[in-house]
């Protein structure tokens, strides 16, 4: 009787998890695979039956596309960061103190070792 080890299942699940992560779209509107490679991850159902253009024939256009894609990601990340900052800042309230006001200061010992 043949039995499989638990490590064999982990290898299978890890490959599926990696594929799922690399093809998932994040806040930038792109997947990790698309950010690195410059084009959308093609799933097995999307693959053509015949081989199309060779990558070496379109290298310059791919490089140009990657530069545009990375610029787009930087802009989207900046917008996302600005939105997050605005949301966090909306919960803060401005407090002004005058000279002589008494305030309580909390000092963490790990930040100021004695």
Query: Residue share in helices?
Result: 40-55%
Compute the number of structural domains. Answer: 1
Radius of gyration: 25 Å
- Uncertain segments are 49-53
How far apart the termini lie comes to 66 Å
Outline type: flat
The helix count comes to 3
Order of helices and strands: HHH
Alpha-beta classification: mainly alpha
Quote the average pLDDT. 76
Number of DSSP E strands: 0
- Please outline the major beta sheet: none
Q: Strand percentage, roughly?
A: under 5%
Q: Oligomeric state of the chains?
A: single chain
In short:
This protein has 114 residues and is mainly alpha-helical.
Kindly list the characteristics that best describe this protein:
114 residues; mainly alpha; 3 helices
Structure notes:
With 114 residues, this protein is mostly helical. It is flat and about 70 Å long. The protein has helices spanning 6-23, 32-37, 59-89. The longest helix has 31 residues, at 59-89. Residues 49-53 have low confidence and may be disordered. Helix content is 48%, strand content 0%. The chain has one domain. The chain is built from three helices and no strands. The chain starts with 5 loop residues before the first helix and ends in a 25-residue tail after the last helix.
